[in-house]
Amino acid sequence: MSISEGLKTNNDKRGNGAMSVFENMEELHKRGNGAMRVFENMEELATDLGYYVSELSEAAVKERGAFAVALSGGASVIEALGKLTEAPYIKTVDWAKWHMFWVDECVVAKNHPDSNYKLVKDGLLCKVPIIPSHVYSINDTLSAEAAAEDYAFGLRQLVKTRTIDVAKSSDCPKFDLILLGMGADGHVASLFPNHHLLDEKEEWVSFVTDSPEPPPERITFTLPVINSAANVIMVVTGADKADTMRKLMGEELHRGSLPAQMVSPKDGNLVWFADNGAASKLVSCHCHS
To answer: pTM value?
Structure first.
Protein backbone atom coordinates (compact mmCIF):
# COMPACT_ATOMS: atom_id res chain seq x y z
CA MET A 1 0.00 0.00 0.00
CA SER A 2 1.04 3.62 -0.37
CA ILE A 3 2.28 5.54 2.66
CA SER A 4 -0.96 7.52 2.79
CA GLU A 5 -3.00 4.31 2.54
CA GLY A 6 -0.95 2.80 5.33
CA LEU A 7 -1.72 5.78 7.55
CA LYS A 8 -5.37 5.27 7.07
CA THR A 9 -5.24 1.65 8.26
CA ASN A 10 -3.45 2.43 11.15
CA ASN A 11 26.20 -2.64 19.37
CA ASP A 12 29.27 -3.59 18.09
CA LYS A 13 28.86 -7.38 18.28
CA ARG A 14 29.80 -9.14 15.07
CA GLY A 15 28.71 -12.24 13.24
CA ASN A 16 30.93 -15.01 11.93
CA GLY A 17 31.92 -13.37 8.64
CA ALA A 18 35.51 -12.35 8.01
CA MET A 19 35.83 -8.61 8.30
CA SER A 20 38.36 -5.86 8.34
CA VAL A 21 38.64 -2.41 9.78
CA PHE A 22 40.57 0.62 8.65
CA GLU A 23 43.82 0.76 10.57
CA ASN A 24 43.58 4.51 11.00
CA MET A 25 40.13 4.56 12.57
CA GLU A 26 40.67 7.88 14.35
CA GLU A 27 41.14 9.63 11.02
CA LEU A 28 38.20 7.77 9.51
CA HIS A 29 35.83 8.83 12.29
CA LYS A 30 37.20 12.37 12.33
CA ARG A 31 36.33 12.74 8.67
CA GLY A 32 32.88 11.27 9.24
CA ASN A 33 33.34 8.33 6.89
CA GLY A 34 32.32 5.83 9.55
CA ALA A 35 33.56 2.31 10.24
CA MET A 36 34.51 -0.09 7.46
CA ARG A 37 33.92 -3.83 7.36
CA VAL A 38 35.25 -5.83 4.43
CA PHE A 39 34.25 -9.42 3.61
CA GLU A 40 35.54 -12.18 1.35
CA ASN A 41 32.17 -12.62 -0.32
CA MET A 42 28.47 -11.76 -0.16
CA GLU A 43 27.69 -14.79 2.00
CA GLU A 44 29.96 -13.54 4.78
CA LEU A 45 28.80 -9.96 4.34
CA ALA A 46 25.15 -11.00 4.61
CA THR A 47 25.85 -13.10 7.70
CA ASP A 48 27.38 -10.17 9.55
CA LEU A 49 24.80 -7.69 8.27
CA GLY A 50 21.91 -9.88 9.36
CA TYR A 51 23.26 -10.01 12.88
CA TYR A 52 23.99 -6.28 12.92
CA VAL A 53 20.51 -5.30 11.72
CA SER A 54 18.84 -7.69 14.16
CA GLU A 55 20.74 -6.03 17.00
CA LEU A 56 19.66 -2.57 15.84
CA SER A 57 16.07 -3.78 15.61
CA GLU A 58 16.12 -5.23 19.11
CA ALA A 59 17.61 -2.05 20.58
CA ALA A 60 15.09 0.25 18.84
CA VAL A 61 12.09 -1.88 19.84
CA LYS A 62 13.29 -1.99 23.42
CA GLU A 63 13.88 1.77 23.52
CA ARG A 64 10.82 3.11 21.72
CA GLY A 65 8.61 0.21 20.66
CA ALA A 66 9.22 0.42 16.90
CA PHE A 67 11.92 -0.05 14.28
CA ALA A 68 11.67 2.36 11.34
CA VAL A 69 13.90 1.26 8.48
CA ALA A 70 14.29 2.78 5.01
CA LEU A 71 15.85 0.88 2.13
CA SER A 72 17.31 2.15 -1.12
CA GLY A 73 17.15 0.37 -4.44
CA GLY A 74 19.78 -2.02 -5.67
CA ALA A 75 19.87 -5.81 -5.82
CA SER A 76 22.98 -5.98 -3.62
CA VAL A 77 21.16 -4.26 -0.75
CA ILE A 78 18.34 -6.80 -0.77
CA GLU A 79 20.70 -9.73 -1.27
CA ALA A 80 22.69 -8.52 1.73
CA LEU A 81 19.55 -8.67 3.88
CA GLY A 82 18.86 -12.26 2.85
CA LYS A 83 19.96 -13.82 6.14
CA LEU A 84 17.08 -12.06 7.92
CA THR A 85 14.67 -14.35 6.07
CA GLU A 86 16.33 -17.42 7.60
CA ALA A 87 16.74 -18.95 11.05
CA PRO A 88 17.17 -17.66 13.66
CA TYR A 89 16.01 -14.19 12.60
CA ILE A 90 12.75 -15.23 11.00
CA LYS A 91 11.58 -16.11 14.53
CA THR A 92 13.71 -13.95 16.83
CA VAL A 93 13.22 -10.56 15.13
CA ASP A 94 10.10 -8.71 16.31
CA TRP A 95 8.75 -8.21 12.81
CA ALA A 96 5.46 -6.77 14.06
CA LYS A 97 7.37 -3.69 15.22
CA TRP A 98 9.07 -3.07 11.88
CA HIS A 99 7.96 -0.15 9.71
CA MET A 100 9.38 -0.30 6.19
CA PHE A 101 10.06 2.73 3.99
CA TRP A 102 11.88 3.46 0.75
CA VAL A 103 14.80 5.91 0.56
CA ASP A 104 14.14 6.26 -3.14
CA GLU A 105 11.77 4.83 -5.68
CA CYS A 106 11.28 4.85 -9.41
CA VAL A 107 7.98 6.35 -10.54
CA VAL A 108 6.69 3.17 -12.12
CA ALA A 109 3.96 0.64 -11.35
CA LYS A 110 4.61 -1.56 -8.32
CA ASN A 111 4.90 -4.65 -10.52
CA HIS A 112 7.38 -3.01 -12.92
CA PRO A 113 10.88 -4.57 -13.05
CA ASP A 114 12.41 -1.18 -12.08
CA SER A 115 10.24 -0.85 -8.96
CA ASN A 116 12.23 -0.84 -5.74
CA TYR A 117 9.04 -1.90 -3.97
CA LYS A 118 8.89 -5.05 -6.13
CA LEU A 119 12.57 -5.74 -5.44
CA VAL A 120 12.05 -5.55 -1.68
CA LYS A 121 8.75 -7.42 -1.80
CA ASP A 122 10.20 -10.33 -3.76
CA GLY A 123 13.44 -10.50 -1.78
CA LEU A 124 12.27 -9.73 1.75
CA LEU A 125 8.65 -8.76 2.41
CA CYS A 126 7.09 -11.94 1.07
CA LYS A 127 9.41 -14.00 3.27
CA VAL A 128 9.02 -12.30 6.67
CA PRO A 129 5.90 -11.50 8.76
CA ILE A 130 5.95 -7.69 8.53
CA ILE A 131 2.46 -6.26 9.05
CA PRO A 132 1.20 -5.08 5.63
CA SER A 133 0.00 -1.74 7.04
CA HIS A 134 3.56 -1.11 8.24
CA VAL A 135 4.86 -1.13 4.65
CA TYR A 136 4.86 2.39 3.19
CA SER A 137 5.34 2.40 -0.56
CA ILE A 138 4.84 5.39 -2.84
CA ASN A 139 1.55 6.10 -4.57
CA ASP A 140 2.39 4.88 -8.05
CA THR A 141 -0.62 6.60 -9.63
CA LEU A 142 0.86 10.07 -9.09
CA SER A 143 3.43 12.13 -10.95
CA ALA A 144 6.96 12.26 -9.56
CA GLU A 145 6.38 15.65 -7.94
CA ALA A 146 3.02 14.66 -6.44
CA ALA A 147 4.36 11.30 -5.25
CA ALA A 148 7.23 13.04 -3.44
CA GLU A 149 4.80 15.46 -1.77
CA ASP A 150 2.52 12.59 -0.78
CA TYR A 151 5.37 10.58 0.70
CA ALA A 152 6.69 13.57 2.65
CA PHE A 153 3.19 14.25 4.01
CA GLY A 154 2.96 10.66 5.21
CA LEU A 155 6.36 10.90 6.91
CA ARG A 156 5.26 14.02 8.77
CA GLN A 157 2.20 12.25 10.13
CA LEU A 158 4.28 9.31 11.28
CA VAL A 159 6.80 11.61 12.97
CA LYS A 160 3.91 13.22 14.85
CA THR A 161 2.88 9.83 16.23
CA ARG A 162 6.55 8.91 16.80
CA THR A 163 6.29 5.82 14.63
CA ILE A 164 9.40 7.51 13.25
CA ASP A 165 11.51 9.34 15.79
CA VAL A 166 12.47 12.98 15.30
CA ALA A 167 16.02 14.33 15.13
CA LYS A 168 16.32 17.07 17.71
CA SER A 169 19.12 18.79 15.84
CA SER A 170 17.23 19.09 12.55
CA ASP A 171 13.53 18.32 13.14
CA CYS A 172 13.88 15.77 10.34
CA PRO A 173 12.62 12.22 10.70
CA LYS A 174 15.16 10.10 12.56
CA PHE A 175 15.00 6.65 11.06
CA ASP A 176 16.39 3.87 13.22
CA LEU A 177 18.16 2.56 10.13
CA ILE A 178 18.72 3.78 6.59
CA LEU A 179 20.32 1.16 4.37
CA LEU A 180 21.95 2.41 1.17
CA GLY A 181 23.74 1.01 -1.81
CA MET A 182 26.19 2.98 -3.93
CA GLY A 183 26.53 3.23 -7.70
CA ALA A 184 29.86 3.08 -9.49
CA ASP A 185 29.51 6.85 -10.02
CA GLY A 186 29.19 7.38 -6.25
CA HIS A 187 25.45 8.09 -6.24
CA VAL A 188 23.30 7.10 -3.29
CA ALA A 189 19.51 6.87 -3.20
CA SER A 190 18.55 8.88 -6.32
CA LEU A 191 21.05 11.61 -5.53
CA PHE A 192 23.43 11.76 -8.47
CA PRO A 193 26.81 13.50 -8.88
CA ASN A 194 26.61 17.29 -9.17
CA HIS A 195 22.80 17.26 -9.11
CA HIS A 196 21.00 20.27 -7.63
CA LEU A 197 19.16 18.04 -5.14
CA LEU A 198 22.42 17.58 -3.26
CA ASP A 199 21.96 21.16 -2.05
CA GLU A 200 18.34 20.69 -0.94
CA LYS A 201 18.01 21.64 2.72
CA GLU A 202 14.28 22.14 3.33
CA GLU A 203 12.38 19.27 1.70
CA TRP A 204 12.44 15.79 3.22
CA VAL A 205 11.50 14.06 -0.01
CA SER A 206 12.11 15.42 -3.49
CA PHE A 207 11.79 14.22 -7.04
CA VAL A 208 13.95 13.69 -10.11
CA THR A 209 12.78 13.83 -13.71
CA ASP A 210 16.22 13.69 -15.31
CA SER A 211 17.91 10.71 -13.72
CA PRO A 212 21.10 9.77 -15.63
CA GLU A 213 20.07 6.16 -15.11
CA PRO A 214 16.71 4.86 -16.36
CA PRO A 215 13.95 5.29 -15.50
CA PRO A 216 14.26 9.10 -15.46
CA GLU A 217 11.50 9.86 -12.93
CA ARG A 218 12.12 9.05 -9.27
CA ILE A 219 11.50 10.25 -5.77
CA THR A 220 14.24 10.34 -3.15
CA PHE A 221 15.03 11.23 0.43
CA THR A 222 17.24 14.30 0.65
CA LEU A 223 20.58 14.45 2.45
CA PRO A 224 19.15 16.17 5.57
CA VAL A 225 16.91 13.14 6.14
CA ILE A 226 19.63 10.59 5.39
CA ASN A 227 22.06 12.38 7.70
CA SER A 228 19.49 12.55 10.52
CA ALA A 229 19.25 8.76 10.84
CA ALA A 230 20.35 6.99 13.99
CA ASN A 231 22.18 4.42 11.86
CA VAL A 232 23.23 4.39 8.21
CA ILE A 233 24.61 1.27 6.54
CA MET A 234 26.30 1.49 3.15
CA VAL A 235 26.47 -1.81 1.25
CA VAL A 236 29.04 -1.70 -1.56
CA THR A 237 29.93 -4.73 -3.64
CA GLY A 238 31.77 -5.39 -6.87
CA ALA A 239 35.14 -4.48 -8.36
CA ASP A 240 33.46 -1.80 -10.49
CA LYS A 241 33.15 0.24 -7.27
CA ALA A 242 36.84 -0.04 -6.31
CA ASP A 243 38.04 3.23 -7.87
CA THR A 244 35.12 5.14 -6.38
CA MET A 245 35.76 3.65 -2.94
CA ARG A 246 39.41 4.67 -3.15
CA LYS A 247 38.41 8.24 -3.95
CA LEU A 248 35.78 8.28 -1.21
CA MET A 249 38.22 7.21 1.45
CA GLY A 250 40.99 9.46 0.16
CA GLU A 251 41.11 13.22 0.00
CA GLU A 252 38.07 15.44 0.31
CA LEU A 253 36.59 15.89 -3.15
CA HIS A 254 34.72 18.72 -4.80
CA ARG A 255 31.32 18.95 -3.13
CA GLY A 256 28.78 16.88 -5.00
CA SER A 257 31.19 15.00 -7.23
CA LEU A 258 30.64 11.81 -5.19
CA PRO A 259 27.34 12.01 -3.28
CA ALA A 260 28.29 9.03 -1.10
CA GLN A 261 30.97 11.20 0.51
CA MET A 262 28.21 13.54 1.68
CA VAL A 263 26.60 10.81 3.77
CA SER A 264 27.64 11.68 7.30
CA PRO A 265 25.02 11.21 10.04
CA LYS A 266 25.08 14.18 12.38
CA ASP A 267 24.13 12.31 15.53
CA GLY A 268 24.22 8.74 14.25
CA ASN A 269 26.46 5.90 13.18
CA LEU A 270 27.73 5.10 9.70
CA VAL A 271 29.05 1.63 8.87
CA TRP A 272 30.28 0.48 5.46
CA PHE A 273 29.82 -3.18 4.49
CA ALA A 274 31.99 -3.95 1.46
CA ASP A 275 33.20 -7.05 -0.30
CA ASN A 276 36.79 -7.66 -1.39
CA GLY A 277 36.11 -6.43 -4.90
CA ALA A 278 34.82 -3.03 -3.81
CA ALA A 279 37.59 -2.63 -1.21
CA SER A 280 40.43 -3.93 -3.38
CA LYS A 281 42.06 -0.52 -3.80
CA LEU A 282 41.84 0.56 -0.16
CA VAL A 283 45.48 0.10 0.72
CA SER A 284 45.00 0.83 4.43
CA CYS A 285 42.50 -1.99 4.71
CA HIS A 286 43.23 -5.57 5.64
CA CYS A 287 41.11 -8.70 5.97
CA HIS A 288 41.14 -11.19 8.77
CA SER A 289 38.90 -13.85 10.16
So the answer is: 0.89
Q: What are phi and psi of 21, to 5 degrees?
A: -135, 145
pLDDT 10s digits, 28-61: 444 456 799 999 999 999 999 999 999 999 999 9
Provide the β-strand partners of residue 95: none
Whole-number Å distance between alpha carbons of 240 and 270: 22
Which has the closest alpha carbon to 1: 137, 105, 99, 122?
A: 137
CA 146/CA 152 separation, integer angstroms: 10
171 has which bridge partners? none
In sequence order, the 6+-apart residues with CB closer than 8 A to the CB of 17 are 39, 40, 43, 44, 45, 46, 47, 48
H helix runs in 65-88, sequence order: 75-80
- Are 33 and 64 in contact by the 8 Å Cβ rule? The answer is no
- Averaged pLDDT, groups of 10, the chain, 289 residues long: 43 40 38 80 96 97 98 92 96 98 97 96 96 97 98 98 93 97 96 95 96 95 98 96 90 82 94 95 57
Q: 167: closest CA among 125, 221, 229?
A: 229
